[in-house]
Amino acid sequence: MILKELANKTVVTVKYYKKGLLETCTGRIYKLNLQEQTLSIQDENQRIFPILFSGIQKIETNC
Asked: Sorted alphabetically, which InterPro entries does this protein's record hold (predicted)?
């Protein structure tokens, strides 16, 4: 699966919709929850952002 491969990369930028607004989050992939269909990103300040798969518009790697 593509998301599992991205978990091995260092830093990713995710653009996603949350409550109708386009948000951007940059950090490391913290957790993939396939049952709940969420991707959790941990930023440089150790904050964790859960993102629904359905809201993701674009994922970029920052290798």
From this structure: YolD (IPR014962)
Model confidence at 6, in pLDDT bands (50, 70, 90)? Answer: low
Q: Can you give the pTM of this predicted structure?
A: 0.80
Task: Identify any residues that bridge with 54 across adjacent strands, giving them in sequence order.
Answer: none
Gap between the Cα atoms of 46 and 57, Å rounded: 23
**Domains identified in the chain and CATH numbers:** 2-61 (2.30.30.520)
Helix (H) or strand (E) holding 28: strand 21-33
Residue 43 is classified by DSSP as -
State the pLDDT at residue 10: 75
